[in-house]
Design brief:
By secondary structure, the chain is an alpha+beta fold. It is built from two helices and eleven strands, in the order βββββββαββββα. Strands 1, 4, 5, 6, 7, 8, 9, 10 and 11 form a nine-stranded antiparallel β-sheet that branches. The longest helix is centred in the middle third of the chain and has 17 residues.
């Protein structure tokens, strides 16, 4: 089984063991036991107050997917643009570059296959974000690791997904369906 992770998370984590669904108190994000054909395997908290959490899901032994919800530095919906040249997406672009560097540091032989803008359907609307696909070797297997990053209200929502490269064609629609089905809070 491939594992995903976020190298930027602190070493101290707290395992949360919800009986059924888990609702993140601060953001309202709901992490049910099952989303489409994915089974939730873990819910973790990365800070003492509970603002920074993740839920890990597996699709059999093929896809490992983790959804992270954590605070953006300030409320994204009311951000002033600090510099004209920075543009309206400076916060997500800056954080996305940090996320990519952390992944590259954790997997030094990682190569970027695809990088760019992405969109997700959520709550009857379309949200824009960033997407990157990394390729690397793990246990004599070529794996792809995808990262999607979005802002929603005052939160970052990040998806980390890992699967064998040879199954990319089959995995892509399954991943897209998961991302559409795990709805964000209004």
């Amino acid at each position: 089984m491939l594992t995903t992770g976020c190298p930027s998370v602190p070493k101290t984590t707290w395992q949360i063991t919800p009986q059924d669904k888990y609702v993140h108190t601060f953001s309202g994000m709901n992490f049910p036991r099952q989303v489409e054909k994915f089974q939730r395997i873990a819910v973790k908290q990365y800070d003492k107050s509970g603002y920074d959490v993740s839920a890990g899901y597996n699709y059999g032994a093929v896809i490992a997917l983790t959804v992270y919800v954590y605070p953006a530095p300030v409320e994204v919906s009311v951000l002033p643009i600090p510099k004209i040249e920075a543009g309206p997406n400076w916060l997500i672009n800056s954080h996305f570059n940090k996320v990519k560097k952390e992944i590259g540091a954790a997997h030094p032989k990682t190569e970027i296959m695809v990088e760019g803008e992405t969109q997700i359907e959520q709550n009857g609307g379309v949200k824009s974000g960033k997407h990157v696909i990394f390729r690397y070797e793990s246990n004599n297997l070529t794996a792809l690791s995808e990262t999607y990053l979005f802002t929603h209200k005052k939160w970052f929502i990040k998806y980390r997904i890992t699967y064998p490269e040879k199954y990319q064609q089959q995995c892509t629609p399954t991943i897209k369906q998961f991302m559409k089905s795990l709805t964000w809070p209004d």
